[in-house]
Amino acid sequence: MAKDIRECLLEQAGKFHQWQEITYPGKTTEEIGGVWEVDYHAWNDIFDAFCHVLNQMDAETADSVLLDEMVYLIARANEAEGFIQETTSHPKWFECLCRRATASNENEAKWQFAAYLPECSCSQEVRDIILDFAKDPNEYVSRRALLAMPALRPDCVEQFAPLFWERNCYSPELQEYQRIAVLVSLDAIHSDLLPQYLERAKQDGRSYLLEHAKRIEGGLAMNEKLSRPQFNQMDTTEKQALMESLAARYDMTFLGLHTFDRWGQSCTTGIFEKDGREFVFVPGDTVTLGWEQFAVGLNQESREELEYLFREWEMEQDPVELIGESMAPVRQVAIGSMLAGRELEEINWEPVKLEDPRLRSEWLEDFRQFALTDRDSLTLAGRARFERDGDSWQVSLYHEVDYLDFQNRLQKQGFSLPTADEWAYLCGGGCRTLFPWGDGLDYSMRLRWFEDMDEDENRPYDMEEPNFFGLSIAYDPYMREVVQADRLTTCGGDGGCNICGGLGPFLGFLPCSPHCKPEVQEDNELNGDYDFYRPIIRLENYD
């Protein structure tokens, strides 16, 4: 089977070679030049055979002949980049072909691998190949490598900057492009060297280089406005204009300015809408995160609750010591500005119609029996969910979702997950108390899982209300918020472990503290009952 798949691609590659020789007899690809490959009539057949290899063969079984032909075809398809895009979705194939391309003379393949390395979930060893591409003698290969380096090896960008700036082995036009790449890559990592290279660009004086330098300088000035100290000092008219420019840039509807004032922090900021989601602009700041001691001290109710718990569990720890075990270390972090989704969203559930053919008959029979009751929600674990909505029903199908695949899918939609540090900032705003409102639990709040049965059901849960940034965040310990990391990592909840363990409201809600340690899960399989996400768009590189 694998042999037939291999032979099919080699046959299609052979037909292309024959066409090339007939059309351009005796000429190498470099001698032909231009975009000659687009004239070939059977690219769809080659692409189908290429994808069949990626989907049906293991990369480890590929021999040198097959790998060389695949690299060759990726090179020839450089105009549309369809082959490299498809390869990016198959990390093992990408790794094998990237290594093969590095050792080849196919510059049109090498620059594509350099450009697409940040988009593929490769091993660090393969991601480090970006350094080899940056040293490649081909100007375009090296330039695309430098532009990709901030996402792969930001620690190496500054060491390559002088090499690219002073390189005199290319034409003046290409040298200008090399210097532009230096400015762009230094800007991407917010390098302290950027101002001196911007000055060098002005001394150079070439038009395209100057144009990029001015654009980057304008972006730096704009980014200053997007930081919390400067943003909070702006008047309403300035903020309105800035928010309208963000809405235009990200194709969002600007709903207006709103002041959010809670727990001693306040922010007048913009609310946006896109595809049914609401986002809020969150200005960046340099803040202290983490916890090591009480800033104010526990209130009496929290002290009494912990004392009672310690007696019941025969614990002899000091409260600071006990709480500190769950807290992240104190550190200072620079947080960039962002557009953040205001609400948590489900991951594993897909809304469908009741007539969806994927709903199995036995599920529908369970639903029909359930619908005769007066209850509002039926969940068939790992399969489907039915929720009453007035006189109708909302139906959802359950899907297994891998964490890394989910991050890639979000990225293709133009979104990211917040990092653990960004999440802590969104939750606490840099507060030094254990919770955003203080060191102790505020027992006057209506807390989910602990409210009295006779309490007004129409009263909202206090922690679910928008915070000082306008976000509904860290309000339910059962809801873990997925953050950006190499492995599945969550903040804002422990899946209800402390509450289920009978540890009471204080320790039950402790995982909702902005300073609580991020929890790295055992595997990368997302749990639709406990894992939720918040899409964000980072604005650091505003220009």
Account of the protein in words:
The protein has 543 residues and is an alpha+beta fold. It is 45% helix and 14% strand. Strand 9 (377-380) and strand 10 (384-389) form a beta hairpin. The protein is globular, with a radius of gyration of 28 Å. The mean pLDDT is 90.
> How many runs of DSSP E, i.e. beta strands?
16
Structural class: alpha+beta
Give a quick account of the main beta sheet: strands, pairing sense, barrel closure: 5 strands, antiparallel
Mean pLDDT score: 90
Which geometry do the CA atoms define? globular
Instruction: Summarize the amount of helix as a percent range.
Output: 40-55%
What order do the strands of the largest sheet run in, or round the barrel if closed? 1-2-3-6-16
Indicate the proportion of strand residues: 5-15%
Gyration radius (Cα, Å) is 28 Å
Uncertain ranges: none
Count of helical stretches: 23
> How far apart lie the N and C ends?
52 Å
Helices and strands, with pairings:
Elements: H1 2-23, H2 29-32, H3 43-56, H4 64-76, H5 82-88, H6 91-102, H7 107-116, H8 124-127, H9 129-134, H10 139-152, H11 157-166, H12 172-188, H13 194-204, H14 207-225, H15 228-233, H16 236-249, E1 253-262, E2 265-274, E3 277-282, E4 285-289, H17 300-312, H18 319-324, E5 331-335, E6 338-341, E7 345-346, E8 349-352, H19 361-371, E9 377-380, E10 384-389, E11 392-398, H20 403-412, H21 420-428, E12 480-483, E13 489-491, H22 497-500, H23 504-509, E14 519-520, E15 531-533, E16 536-538
Helix pairs in contact: 1-3, 3-5, 4-6, 4-7, 6-7, 7-10, 10-12, 11-12, 12-13, 12-14, 13-14
